[in-house]
Fold:
Amino acid sequence: MRREVLTWSDVDKLIDYLVPQIQGRYDSMLIITRGGIVPGGMLAEALNITYILTASVRFPADFPGLQTPGQEKFAIPEFIQFPADSLLAGRRILVVDDVWTKGRNSVTVANRIDAAGGTPDTCVLHYKPASSLYPGYTPTYYAAVSDAYIIYPWELDRGPEVLGMWN
Structure:
């Protein structure tokens, strides 16, 4: 798989591309950990959103030894941390992550916000339509389309290569 290593300048340009796309005012932002923390912070500053929430979602089927073919479409998410429904109900919420690869994190979080009575819109730096599990469904806002494995500047020197996970 092709890899694309981004600089902080590249990320600034992606944020600058996203900001004018974002329509209207949001009551709050929900950042999906860990990938959404940095772009979420940058967008919160640029959009002057001060009410920031976080969600941590894990799909156990993604871990080695637990995978079976086709299972990724039916994996049950584990919510490690998620805001109370009372913090979501009646609010327009911008859901931020770094990348939409399969789309499961963004869609799962948006669906849970919707079920709590909130109105979610999703936002990512990179959208990968070829690997998405949701054909015809895209993030509300995205800065770039890619098929590469994206390495963000905050991941350098701490990624899989350094940990010996890639050969």
